[in-house]
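re: that chain from earlier
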Amino acid sequence: GGAREGVRQRGKQVVRAVLRDEDPVSAPGGAVGQGEAGGFGNVDAGIFRADRFAMLDKMSVECLYHGNCDEKDAEDVAKFLENHFSAKGHGGISIPRRQEVIKVPQSVTDHIVTTASKEMTDPNTAVEMYFQVGLDNIYHRVIIDLLVDIMNSPMYDQIRTKEQFGYSVSVGKNWNRGVMGIIFQVVSSSKPAVEIHNRINRFILEFREILFHMKPEKIAEHLCGIAKIKLQMFNSMEEETQHLWQEILIRRYDWESSRKEACCLRAVTAEDAMQFYDRWLMGNEEDGHKKGDGRRCLVVKTVGSGEERPAIDSSAIDSHVDECVSKFHELAAYLTWKP
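^ sequence. v structure.
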């Protein structure tokens, strides 16, 4: 279980790094690399004091004041923080710059990034297929919720339960710095990455027919189920605070997002689900039949032991991933989504 989780998390870090200009080793949730750990040995108190203001210039602070307080209490806390982080004319509080997300080029073929697991004897291989939808839009956001909800159980039942294709099989939504997407993931110790990739693509193709023939009443059941979850009351102030803090973490700052999404679900139709399935996952035009310019699909394969594994030593994997990320950014012409 631990090995599978390690391969899966490594794939997620690579996806984040490919889509943003960041080091997958030092990315949030990633491990500290050997180079960084070695650098701590060269830092003493004098160096830290000399460089502390330069570091503060690159820092930002975000706070959530929630509970038994009013607007004046929140303003007082904000002033307190600003005064303390602006000492001696250095530092200061400003809105952090939104990190831009690379725009995955539209193509009739999938963009593939292949790397190896850190442990050369790890038998698990993970494949993530990321379909980039575009800039945040509440209507598209709830369409993604619907498609993921409809696909999740059939995908697990067919690929995991019936075919025993992989240990971990899932489809989920992705919200990355204001850019939406859908991610399919399979982790297997018995199937090669190419076969996993092909199986996910086949599921997407076959599921289109299921969605096309799905009765409106069945889709309405999914919509009602999603709305009920979004409108559930919080069980405690701690739970509500965690929900609000998540809006800060993803830098969306929409404190009523769940309620707004539940209201938006009322306008979604079966035709909408079919139209956007074709556009986002099939790469077709809006009519569902005419081939368009392709889809925005990035496939990340983290290969374990076996013939498919890239001939890379464990100590060189981080630099190999950096090279893969740079090549993809170059392929994408460094174009990013602009809010």
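The first strand starts at residue 111 and ends at 116.
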